[in-house]
Specification:
Layout (H helix, E strand, L loop, with lengths): L8 H4 L18 E3 L9 E5 L1 H6 L4 H4 L2 H6 L12 E3 L2 E4 L2 E5 L5 E9 L2 E8 L14 E2 H17 L5 E14 L8 E12 L5 H9 L3 H15 L8 H25 L1 E2 L21 E2 L24 H20 L2 H27 L8 H12 L6 H8 L10 H4 L12 H19 L5 H11 L7 H12 L4 H9 L35
Antiparallel strand pairs: 1-3, 2-9, 4-5, 6-7, 7-10, 8-10, 9-10, 11-12
The protein binds adenosine monophosphate and magnesium ion.
The site of magnesium ion has 3 residues, from loops.
């Protein structure tokens, strides 16, 4: 196994001078050196061929003993110095102080094909940032992160990636529903990768500690390696840096809204500075189209991180980042302008995105009202977002009265589509039909365009849960099946037709299938 190791983060940034692995508040440092834990009986369950390739590894490498050992933390490669990153964050709107990589350990960085990948294990044992937890991860949350991060990549959504999924062979104690019923579960380790795992919270921690010097060092490092095009550090560069982060964050969230992804825990420590989807926890996919839906049981009451609120939370989080880097700029106005721009751009980009989902190429001044009306009818009775948009490409403008038939399979309670609800839907289809007559594309062309933005297959929570239940019993075939299917989410793939279906009723209120806790 040959890797082109090129460590930068732990070479260029200030390290914690303490080398002991005990819990502590870390100051004036971006990370702490720490070794992963030896595990009882590591077993590799799956690897991503695309990620192997990105790192310059082969399928044969993935089968080697060295691979198993390195990517479960049981062997540290010579000349590498694993470390956990220091960061803070706002959790559910409140400043939570130091958080950091409590159960993530960065192994090294690999340069391949002009890309520098950080390679990180999640669930490889305690670090100075583990606080009162064990540094471990269970199989269920690891399967979810592994499958979903690769699926998001293939959907075209900016995301961290995953290289491998392994069992540690250790047992991990978890209280899934936080109700005092703890039980042992299989421990697992995901190896994940990204060009950087820096988060908004990585910058916030230094602002909170009034450590402007390390803050500047980290921002300069980030610009040098990840926003290279911005050039030498200066007040103007810092402003452009914030502007770019703001644009990337918006772009990521627009993608989430397009595919119906709800992150579930948009705390500032889970916001990537590169605008990548990061930290797959109690996330979920919209089944019934509902702005108020959140998959996270911890957020059940306030629904801060509900689907319809993700764009606002992006803005709120950016405001926290602006506050954090303010000491380098000392001028609020340009930062406020950028935040206001986010709001304006959100409206523009959202409209563009929904137009594309409806197969509309032209811009029409009535689109805003027309789309608002669609959102209203979508909320009248439960309708599956993925199936609705996918089947809508079959709509023929010549037959608006057939519209309801085209989307029939998407309704969870088709019996409710009568009276006023039926009338409202038919009115909308009439408008859609008229709107389509202003377009020049043929129905076939429109269908092709729509099918490139409206996925046919997404990782519904119940699907992930079925794969987890099998994996718990030692059967990993479903992980492989879903992994392969989700590589081509926009293709018809008739062999997987059974997964193009509404959430079954048994899954509606089952733990893991619709709502999830943060326990992982
Ligand atoms: P999250 O919101 O799940 O991304 O995690 C919030 C914070 O809790 C991060 O600092 C994590 O590293 C930490 N954390 C979560 N689970 C564990 C665990 N099992 N052991 C140690 N730290 C954890
Ligand atoms: Mg996190």
């Amino acid at each position: 196994m040959k890797l082109n190791i090129k460590d930068i983060f732990n070479q260029e940034l200030p390290a914690d001078s303490i080398l002991e692995n005990n819990r502590r508040q870390v100051v004036n440092a971006c990370f702490s050196f720490v070794k992963p834990k030896q595990t009882a009986n590591p077993e590799l369950l799956h690897t991503s061929p695309e990620m192997l390739n990105n790192l310059g590894l082969s399928e044969a490498d993935a089968k080697s003993e060295a691979f198993l050992k390195v990517f479960t933390g049981n062997e540290v490669l010579p000349n590498t110095n694993p470390y956990a990153m220091c960061y803070g964050g706002h959790q559910f709107g409140n400043w939570a102080g130091q958080l950091g990589d409590g159960r993530a350990i960065n192994l090294f960085e690999v340069e391949h094909d002009n890309t520098n990948w950080q390679v990180q294990l999640k669930g490889a044992g305690e670090t100075p940032y583990s606080r009162n937890a064990d540094g471990l991860a269970v199989l269920r949350s690891s399967v979810r992160e592994y499958l979903c991060s690769e699926a998001m990549y293939h959907l075209g959504v900016p995301t961290t990636r995953a290289l491998s999924l392994a069992l540690s062979g250790d047992q991990v104690l978890r209280d899934v529903m936080y109700d005092g019923n703890s039980a042992y579960e299989k421990g697992a380790i995901v190896c994940r990768t990204a060009e950087s795992f820096l988060r908004f919270g990585s910058f916030q921690i230094f602002a909170a500690n009034q450590d402007d010097e390390t803050l500047k060092t980290l921002v300069d490092y980030t610009i040098k390696h990840h926003f290279t095009h911005l050039g030498e550090p200066s007040k103007e560069t810092y402003i452009q840096f914030f502007k770019t982060v703001s644009e990337r964050t918006l772009d990521m969230i627009i993608h989430w809204q397009r595919v119906g992804f709800v992150h579930g825990v948009m705390n500032t420590d889970n916001m990537s500075i590169l605008g990548l989807t990061i930290d797959y926890g109690p996330y979920g996919w919209l089944e019934g189209y509902d702005y108020g839906w959140t998959p996270n049981t911890t957020d059940r009451q306030h629904k801060r991180y509900r689907y319809g609120n993700q764009p606002n939370i992006g803005l709120w989080n950016l405001l926290q980042l602006a506050n954090a880097i303010y000491p380098l700029i000392n001028d609020a106005e340009p930062l406020e302008t950028i935040l206001n721009q986010y709001k304006d751009n959100f409206e523009i980009e959202r409209l563009k995105m929904i137009r594309s989902k409806l197969g509309l190429q032209l811009e029409d001044e009535t689109d805003s009202a027309f789309i608002l009306e669609l959102e209203d009818v979508l909320h009248l009775t439960e309708i599956d977002m993925t199936i609705f948009f996918r089947n809508l490409s079959d709509f023929k403008k010549e037959n608006p009265s057939e519209g309801l038939k085209v989307i029939h399979d998407a309704f969870y309670k088709p019996d409710e589509v009568i009276g006023n609800i039926e009338k409202r839907w038919n009115e909308w289809f009439d408008k859609y039909s008229k709107r389509l007559t202003t377009e020049s594309f043929s129905q076939k062309e429109r269908m092709e365009k729509m099918n490139q933005v409206n996925p046919k297959y997404v990782l519904r929570n119940y699907m992930a849960q079925l794969a987890i239940d099998d994996a718990d019993k030692g059967d990993y075939k479903l992980i492989d099946e879903l992994f392969n299917m989700l590589k081509k989410p926009y293709n018809e793939q008739p062999e997987y037709q059974k997964w193009f279906a509404k959430r079954p009723e048994w899954a509606r209120d089952k733990v893991g299938c619709s709502m999830l806790s943060c326990s992982s």
